[in-house]
Amino acid sequence: MSSIRPGSPAAYWLALPATLWMMAAVVVPVGMIVWVSFWGGRAFSPDSPLSLDNYQRFFANRTYLALVLETLRHTATMMLICGVLGYCIAYFLVVKVRSPGWRTVLFLAFVIPFWTSALIRAIAWVPFLGVNGVINQALLATGLAEKPVEVFLYSRTGISMAQVSLYTLMASGPVVYMLAQIPPALLEAAMTLKAEPVTVFRRVIFPLTLPGVVIGQVLVFLNVMADFATVQTIGGNKIALLPNLVINFYEGAQIRAAAVVAVLLMLCMLAGVAAALRVVDVRRLGAT
Amino acid sequence: MDGTAYAPGRARAARRPLLDHRARSRLTAWVLGTLTVGFLLYQWLPILTLSLLSFSGPTGGTTFPMNGVSLHWYRELWDASIMNDFKPPLGRSFVLAIACAVTTCLLSVASAQAMRGRFRGQGLFFYLILLGIMAPGLLVGFGFALVCRILGIETAWNTTAFLVHVSWTLPFGFLTMLAIFNRFDPKLEEAALTLGASRWTAFRRITLPIVLPGVIGSLLFGFSLSYDEFARSMFTTGADITLPLAVMAQLDRQLTPELFAIGAATTVTSLLAILACTFALWGLRRAQRR
Amino acid sequence: MDRLPQLDLEIRSLRKRYGGFTAVDGVSLQVGKGQFVCLLGPSGCGKTTTLRCVAGLEEPDGGDILIGGREVTRDPPWRRDIAMMFQDFALFPHMTVARQVGFGLEMLRKPRAEIAARVAEVLAAFEITALADRKPASLSGGQRQRVALARAMITEPRILLLDEPIGALDYSLRETVMIELKQLQRRVGISFIWVTHDQNEAFSLGDHVVVMNHARIEQQGAPEDILHRPRTPFVAGFVQGNNSFHGRIAGAEGGMLRIAGEAGSFLVPGASRAPGSAASFSVRAERIGPAAAAHANRLAVRCVTVEYFGSIRRYILERAGGALLKLDQFGAEPAWLRQGEAAEIGWAAEDCVLHAVPEEAAPASSAAPAREVVPA
Known about the structure:
Helix content of chain B: over 70%
Shape of chain B: globular
Structural class of chain B: mainly alpha
Oligomer: heterotrimer
Strand content of chain A: under 5%
Number of strands of chain A: 0
Distance between the termini of chain B: 61 Å
CATH class of chain A: Mainly Alpha
Strand content of chain B: under 5%
Largest sheet of chain A: none
Largest sheet of chain B: none
CATH class of the domain at 84-254 in chain B: Mainly Alpha
Distance between the termini of chain A: 42 Å
Radius of gyration of chain A: 24 Å
CATH architecture of the domain at 84-254 in chain B: Orthogonal Bundle
CATH superfamily of the domain at 84-254 in chain B: MetI-like
Structural class of chain A: mainly alpha
CATH topology of chain A: MetI-like fold
Largest interface: A-B, 89 and 94 residues
Order of helices and strands of chain A: HHHHHHHHHHHHH
CATH superfamily of chain A: MetI-like
């Protein structure tokens, strides 16, 4: 008994608005992309015959294929960096910081930038990365470099640097949550069973936080895969990854090509999420 | 086992490492702590630099030196030319964010309450809403633009953009409400029902005040996520653009300290908003405990 | 000094503070080979902290801990010859029962085949072979308890530390588990150190019971010793079935002391003490009866209520001044008093136990009200 009866029709009525909303704003549009990607001919019209022409045209171009691989490689790099860094930070915050006051301060220090606009944060990197940027000024001032280094702005390095600062917390958050769930008695039990700290980490802590790691990786993966804004802000028009290709085609009125790229992006993401769900299968967790 | 032989202790003693376990633990803490603080700096430095540079003099550029300290760029922002007048986009973004916050709040309370009703197909319903988080803004925005084009719908910030924004903010509010309802003890409602309250009264008088932190959380999510949204807006806003679009457009034209001024201003605003909400929550909890 | 290797555990004036709170204050304890020791006390008395210091999970601020004659005060848990059973069993949620039980042997780097064989053996001994491939989440409370015990025992530690090991079990299961654990301990001959706040557990299991309060040991000894000869008013009050009285020494009479308090004047056996000094003593509820000629001590009471437990019948009595007393009678005998009736009770001087340490803070002349009116 509660304010809503199990199985009552009220539940359907309550769920209906959100269902319609999500169908209209997410499901139908995504379906539309898939449909449009199969349109043959040249006209933008629902009467177009269905064909694989758009895909054939895309896969015939080696530059685009290279771009797919490049995007995947970039995303994998980001996942690795954000994952390791995020885990270290989560471990420090939960395990090593004992005082609740400090923990709150650190927590806030992490969360506040996270709540501010990603666009602004990406823009904030621009004065840092330029040829006359802060990093170069620091390098010149300390004598670490003779002349300005040009690898930062409008480069992959610069994009990676900004994305690490944007997305590490996404890898960290779920791990913080999982770490905080572990009862201290489990670690103590392992220690009294003669496990040294490294072993306790390897055999108890890490397996128990694995779902958090995977969820964090999925978040980083999805966000980096679809992040065209940071690439555009920092890379200018010199660097493009798969998501930027969607924009470029769209703005160039090549709607069907844009749809093809969007579908590919979608497939990559689905594959990634499916693979991740396989790993977090709770029943398989014990088989360490 | 005789009195003294303790094999593992001895075996370990033979290859005891250089540092004892306390020193190693402290070393780990230092290494991880340095990493954490380093990352914090890494995250904050650009924002702080941006804020600092927004106060640079009229001849200042987008990097150091600042060429003096002034409010020049904020003044520039205030009496802007038609080309880069940020005030109308700011107003639109604000109204849109408020509308999204309210809608998100209502829809997520209703959806979470529906989940408590255990209806058939609720698993599907859950994933449908979660899709809003998983589906990237680029795809949703692009797809929605296609739909609009086929159906001949004119895109505008207060119609299509609103619809799409809520699909992004709703899942966050929904998850917040689910988490709060998870910890909510339904026995409290049962108690109200046995005292003669109707289901609606029980919900309004007992449930709602207790889950209020979640309600405020969903409002906050709704506002902040919509206010900052860029990818979805890009495809669905039409001619009258919102603030992030205006910022990006200006960035495409020319990077000036004016953009830094906007960045600093919005960062401070959201900081204040978080603080206000935190204090409101804190005060609310205290008021409820009394 | 020849006896040292014979001790499984020796604790010398252990101290542990948390900020301004003293958790353990000068605790000393010796545990001989294969002893069953119970640390008993109210929550927050320092018994668990003491146990955790022995395990190496807390670092003491002072004192020494020797396990099997070896100094281990500064050693980490994984270098101590102990195993521990935790309150909620602390089973690893991600490991199967077999994996879980074999964990300790894995940590000792035993060969795989040996581990498998030992695990099978131990699972069989604890009758949990059928659970080998299950995860803790799917086990019942009793099954978890067995798994936790098997996991702790498989490495054959010198000492098994148990922190309220049956507190998480259903009440109906506890009795059985207690008997099993006692038999197990006798059979394998390793020392058990069992922390509990439940005196039934402590007195029925322990060879040696240590009563703790406010970070110190109040009294330690055989269960009979503690039950019948409480050294302090705290022990007398904490242990079931005692009636405590407080007063001052009024004088000596025929090799006994006379103690006068608010409740009256009583004759108590004991060596002479300075007249006027504070003193307290206790009498067990079953040693009190209807006033008789042999009774040197008497008291007028009124019966508040009668509780019947089968083997005994307990009268809750109120004396002048309002304090409550307990009187036990064999359950088979006919009831002697009914609710509301007044009577005179009495007991022999020899049945009084003078407390070695009178409670400083106690009001000089008032019988302590019965601490626990209803037995747990």
